[in-house]
Amino acid sequence: MFADWPILSLLIWLPILGGFLVLAAGRDAPHVARRLGLAVAVATFVASLPLWFAFERGTAEMQFQELASWIPAFNVNYHLGVDGISMPLILLTTLITVIVIIAAWESVKDRIAYYMSAMLVMEGLMIGMFAAMDAVLFYVFFEAMLIPMFLVIGIWGGPRRVYATIKFFLYTFLGSVFMLVALIWMYIQSGSFLIQDFHALQIGMTAQILIFLAFFMAFAVKIPMFPVHTWLPDAHVEAPTGGSVILAAIMLKIGGYGFLRFSLPITPDASAVLDTLMIVLSLIAIVYIGLVALIQSDMKKLIAYSSIAHMGFVTLGFFLAFYIYSNTGDWEGASLGIAGGMVQMISHGFISAAMFLAVGVLYDRLHSRQISDYGGVVNTMPWFAAFFVLFAMANTGLPGTSGFVGEFMVILAAFKADFWIAFLAATTLILAAGYTLWLVKRVIFGAVANDNVAGLSDMNRREFFLMGVLAFFTLLLGVWPAPLLDVMNATIDHLVAHIAQSKL
Amino acid sequence: MDTIYLLIVLAPLFGAIIAGLFGRQIGRAGAHSVTILGVAISFILSVVVFWAHVFGDAGVYNETVYTWMVSDGIQFEVGFLVDNLTALMMLVVTFVSLMVHIYTIGYMQDDPGYQRFFAYISLFTFSMLMLVMANNFMQLFFGWEAVGLVSYLLIGFWYKRPTAIYANMKAFIVNRVGDFGFLIGIAALVFYTGSLNYADVFAEGQSMSEATITIWPGWTFGLLDLALIFLFIGAMGKSAQVPLHVWLPDSMEGPTPISALIHAATMVTAGIFMVARMSPLYEFSVPALSMILIIGAITAFFMGLIGLVQNDIKRVVAYSTLSQLGYMTVALGASAYAAGLFHLMTHAFFKALLFLAAGSVIIAMHHLQDMRAMGGLRRHMPITYATALIGSLALIGFPFFSGFFSKDAIIEAVGYSEIPGATFAYWLVLAGVFVTALYTFRMFFLVFHGEERYDQAHKYMPDHGDDHDDEHGDDHHHGPLQPKESPWVVTVPLILLAIPSVVAGYFIGPMLFGDFFADSLFVLPEQDVLATKGETYTGVIGFVLHGLMLPAFWLAMAGLGTAWYLYMKRPELPGVIAERLKLGVRILEDKYGFDRFNDWFFAGGTVRLGRALWRYGDALIIDGLLVNGTARSVGWISARIRHMQSGFLYHYAFVMIIGLLVLMFAFVI
Asked: N or C end of chain A, less CB within 10 A?
């Protein structure tokens, strides 16, 4: 019954318009801003549920399509649709936005209406990016989405926010310019901006490599991959809690989404040639960044580096396909890797959101993110400690939590590609346990370290609710990932079948 | 039958959730009632299952509970495989767990974390049952890591103690090194078979032994050998085999009931169980068996030696556990899986008994653990004394006690084995018998016999005594120590564990030489050492009489006699000997330097490496040269341009988008 409704448009414009409404109505009335903001976010989340329930499993077709002409002169269309890759990411976005809105309830004191508005507008733009089937539409959302993020870091951020914002801007801007050139080149070739038409395009090897590199610049920065990752720790450290949550839980996924939507299907031959590079960079992310995370003294930086290491599994899973084929002569295992990367993205959405919220909970109380300012938090905040340990364990990939699923799948697939890839990827079991549990030991356990910790009060009901929701999804996905896989399988199998065909 | 298995697994989980989340509401009595009820249900149903499988005609049960997920044609499932091996493990796990639950009422009665403790040990029971009942590798790995998690939580149970929260982190990370290998092993099996289910994988064991994998140009391995060696690395972590044993002695920082349950009877035997479960694979890999044999023998002998110089009562038992795990491992390596499992079972009983008896002593000594301040306790604690004696005799392999049967079987099996390394292993496990008897009765005499040395208690109090006080509210600083027998919740589990510590050995006939494990274990005829031994088996009495003529028995007697001479007859002598053998004692007290090396090389080295990578990689090269260099030039330009602009960041961004659209326009025209 929902298939013909313009749900995707609703999901894009409801939060954007709602965001402006919040700004108009709540500028001088923080209570109105909060409640209205929450109402819009919840309404968007509820409106996104039909995507899950009415989504037709077992087909790779784009669903919930909407088509309207936008710039006829260039055949640019307002064309929306979702498949098994984008739909879960949209749901993640609508869920996390509700969380972020609630998290800001008391902790954002300054210009709350602007904050709520920025978050809601950002939500609409991110959904638009995931739902866009037209490359220009995608690009507009891709760039526009950054504006509210700049504002969030720039206005509510920490002392070095200007540095962080400029770094963030430079990285992402430089990356996306090349992508735009690639999109235009493909438009000239195909006469269409429809992304699926790009998929069908026959492209020579040189052009494929250039296009691959252009997309790589855009998406490697976003996800981020080594060596273009250093903007992320700075951005996280300066961003307010909500900004960090959105950044880690959703924005990083845009890079992964881009690889699946553009790089692999449009330039499969270039991907096959350059997959060693991608795999090596992914493994560096897992091993090198894992080591770097170990010695961080700032909690947010540590979690930011941990995010990069976890995203290494995403890119690793995506680019194993060609390696598997050249090793075994068969594509079996390719979709396991890609699906593993996807699961890892969704899972990381829950876990990183929870970890950054947890740091926010502590920061709201003591205004410090330094590990050394804490110690023995469990004595005064037992419930908080319980959640923290749960999410820390999820972060180390403990089976039964969502963190395990994707890593397990990627490691299984990696063995099909090469023993050493699996070997190096599996070191995450040790490294992630090292940096995460050391953090837990120093912050949570031990005797009460100082008077500030002694005066801590445990989580309030609002914080408890947020952690509880994220814990629920972390455990659900860990205990029963089948529903998520059922949604994605057809799309991923289709993708693998597509990249198996050379375009030369 | 489906419901009964589900109930066995879920009852402890239910108890754990109730006690964990609603501990405050239901109170102490509520917490221990609900968890004991859960575990008791599991135990009773496990007895029913055991009966049905062993004495009834219940066949092997192998069913899926639910499909976890499907990806790339691989079914990831959660399901149960119940055969005699599983039924035995379920019985051992639930029985010891139930005893420990009851014991905990007494041991933890003053602890503010009472409810939390019960929640953890019930959660552990759930995890361990998931591990032993799994019918596939993913669920096995789930149980494998879940027991590690609970072990982590329990070692760090007294989270204010710096030593405890160091030990639990160490335990988890060292176990993760093992799990790392375990996961690679699983990946290798899935690589070849395309399935995670035991049945599918086992069916391919033989054909897989002919496959090879080139992991380096010119360096080709048997794929099965590689997979099984990596799987065994997992077992080395969980079952604390050298060099991944280092976490187990430190795990004694946890409360004593969990030392009995997790770090003696159940979790640490997971590795033994796993290798035995995989016998249809291990049989086809002589290199893997050889490695298991040698690692096990080294652990059995050299860890036993360390037990000789320990003064903390729990640490002696801990090193003894390491050594006994080594014996079980040796049995696996010799293809005598049944003997390994048999020793696993008898050891679970008598070692849980010894730990709980040690805990009873520790209660009486007001949480003092140093044996130098004990002595003469037999007069004050008759029940603890008697049960500890039974446990000690079982441990050293005294005739008619359970350990005699299981240990003799292992030693003889190794003697018959022709796996490379068997001779080496044989001499080590034989010598280990003497060491075992010596450290066991050194401990026994120091604790229960001789003069009372309670006045020296203040010298040997643990330095975390202050934290401890907060938790236990005990009063060891006031007045002279007057040990007394523990309450019935402590002594009843001791008595109940003492019974199987004696009689469990009498099942040697069916378990080792009969068809008890016929459906569960697979042994190639040419490697079947137990069958060789079984040819001469005539019954329990005959086995004992035969055993009396073997060197193992006389070595045990020699060890016992030496302990008596050194610690009863001539108590001044050990000091003299230690003085003479200074270097040896120092090496043993240093635990062969493993901890120092690991701290310096692995822990320290990793941190140093991380710091160097961060400083020179991220900060200097990437940020310093590449990024900020660019940023500085761009910043200079933008500083000029900023004068022309409104100063709002979003203006820039919108201008950017419009500019790009214009650019696109120009490009297309």
From this structure: N
